[in-house]
Design brief:
The protein is mainly alpha-helical. The protein contains two helices and no strands. The chain has one domain.
Length: 52
């Protein structure tokens, strides 16, 4: 699965589930930051570990 597929899955599956939190912008922002931060962390970690 590529990165684009993962982002599409997150946008279409996870975002509607988190839509209730957009009533409270601060909570919604934190949740989205954590989700996208986790994806970035896993992507960078796998990119650097593949060199070893």
């Amino acid at each position: 699965m590529g990165a684009a597929t993962g982002l599409v899955i997150i946008d279409f599956v996870l975002r509607p589930l988190l839509r209730f939190s957009f009533k409270f912008y601060f909570i919604g922002f934190i949740i989205l930051f954590l989700v996208y931060g986790f994806i970035a962390y896993k992507t960078l970690k796998s990119a650097y570990l593949s060199d070893n």
